[in-house]
Design goal:
Blueprint (H helix, E strand, L loop, with lengths): L10 H14 L32 E7 L5 H17 L4 E7 L4 H8 L3 E4 L3 H4 L5 E8 L11 E6 L14 E4 L8 H10 L4 H4 L2 E4 L3 H11 L4 E5 L2 H7 L8 E3 L3 H5 L16 E4 L5 H12 L7 E4 L5 H12 L5
Parallel strand pairs: 1-2, 1-3, 6-7, 6-8
Antiparallel strand pairs: 3-10, 4-10, 4-11, 5-8, 5-9
Length: 323
C-alpha cells in the first residue's frame, strides 16, 4: 500500500518521552515542576501556587494507562503548547490510577482529562468531550486506532483458530487499541479467548513488555496497538523484521491507516471537561486546543463521532461470556 504521510514520533521524541515517563514517577508521586516548557508534575491539586501568582489554577490529568512513551510525548508537547496559549492560567498536571478512577478523581478534582475513547464509559465518569486527536496525514479522526495480532514470521499461524492452546500477551483488557478491540473480533468469529488460548498474559506496557514477549518467543501471539511495529522498526528501536500481522481484510485491500491492523478502527485520545470546571475555563481551553494544528505530529478536532466505540461496547455487553 502507499503509506500516508504520518509519523508516530521521532527517536528523539521517544527518548524524551521515556525521560518524562520516568520523571513522572509512580501514580501519586509529587514531582517538582521543571523549567522551560515542560509541564509540572503533580499528584494533588491542593499544592499551592507561589504567593505572587494570582492566576486561576487549571488542573489537567490523565490515567496511568496513557503513560507509555508515545502518549507521554504527545501529552508533554500538548501541555507545553497549551501553556503558551493559556498564559492567564497556572496549568498543573496529574496522573491517576485508572483502576481507581472514581476515588482518585474525586480527590484530585481535575478540570480536564486526556483519555482513550472508552474511558468515560468504563470509568463511570461524567464529562464532556471537547476535542479528539488526529495524527497528521490521517483522513478520518473517527477511525484512527486499532489493534494488531502479531506472530513470528516463521510460524505457521494464519488465522486466530490456528492459535488453539497457545500463549497470548496483551496490555490491559480495557485498551481500545488492544484487547478491547480484539475482543470484538473474537466475538464476531465465534471465538471464546478463554477457551482458545492456553494462557492470556497481561502486561502494563505494550513496549517493551508485550513486544518483547513475541520477539523472545515467550508469546505465540501478541495483541498490540496498530502502527506500533512500524514505528519501532522505522526508528530502529527494535528489530521487527521477523514479525508479521494477521491482517484484517480491510487492512489488506483498502487500509485506512498507514500500517497493518487486525481489528476495526476507533477514535484516538480525547480531551474531556469535568462538570465542575468553570464554563469560562472550558471555553478558553476549547479555543486553545483547537488552535493546535500540528503539535507532536497531531491536531485536535471537535465533533468527532464516537458511534463506533458505543457500538463496540454495546456489542460486547450484549454478547454471552466475559468481556
Amino acid at each position: 500500500m502507499n503509506p500516508l504521510d504520518v509519523k508516530r514520533f521521532s527517536a528523539a521524541g521517544f527518548l524524551a518521552a521515556l525521560f518524562w515517563t520516568v520523571l513522572s514517577g509512580p501514580v501519586g508521586a509529587v514531582v517538582p515542576g521543571s523549567s522551560g516548557a515542560a509541564p509540572d508534575g503533580l499528584s494533588h491539586p491542593s499544592l499551592t501556587a507561589p504567593a505572587d501568582d494570582t492566576r486561576p489554577v487549571m488542573t489537567v490529568a490523565w490515567p496511568d494507562t496513557l503513560v507509555n512513551p508515545y502518549d507521554a510525548f504527545t501529552i508533554h508537547e500538548t501541555i507545553a503548547a497549551l501553556k503558551e496559549r493559556l498564559r492567564g492560567y497556572r496549568i498543573r498536571t496529574a496522573t491517576f490510577a485508572a483502576a481507581e478512577s472514581a476515588e482518585q478523581l474525586e480527590r484530585l478534582r481535575p478540570d480536564f482529562i486526556f483519555a482513550r475513547s472508552v474511558f468515560p464509559l468504563d470509568a463511570g465518569v461524567s464529562s464532556v468531550r471537547i476535542a479528539t486527536r488526529r495524527l497528521k496525514g490521517l483522513a478520518e479522526a473517527e477511525r484512527a486506532v486499532g489493534a494488531a495480532f502479531v506472530v513470528r514470521s516463521d510460524s505457521h499461524y494464519r488465522t486466530l483458530r490456528d492459535l488453539k492452546d497457545r500463549t497470548v500477551f496483551s496490555s490491559l483488557p480495557t485498551a481500545i487499541d488492544g484487547w478491547l478491540a480484539a475482543e470484538r473480533v473474537f466475538r464476531r468469529e465465534g471465538i471464546d479467548p478463554t477457551r482458545l488460548f492456553a494462557r492470556v498474559v497481561r502486561r502494563n506496557n505494550d513496549y517493551p513488555d508485550v513486544v518483547g514477549a513475541i520477539l523472545s518467543g515467550r508469546a505465540d501471539v501478541a495483541v498490540v496497538p496498530a502502527c506500533l511495529l512500524e514505528t519501532l522498526g522505522d526508528e530502529g528501536l527494535a528489530d521487527v523484521s521477523g514479525l508479521r500481522v494477521l491482517e484484517s481484510e480491510e487492512s489488506k485491500s483498502a487500509p485506512v491507516i498507514p500500517c497493518r491492523y487486525s481489528t476495526e478502527l476507533y477514535p484516538d485520545i480525547s480531551l474531556l471537561a469535568l462538570p465542575h470546571a468553570p464554563s469560562e475555563m472550558v471555553r478558553d481551553m476549547t479555543i486553545a486546543i483547537l488552535s493546535l494544528r500540528n503539535t507532536a505530529g497531531a491536531e485536535w478536532l471537535t465533533n468527532v463521532s464516537h458511534a463506533g466505540v458505543d457500538a463496540l461496547l454495546k456489542e460486547l455487553r450484549s454478547a454471552p461470556g466475559p468481556i
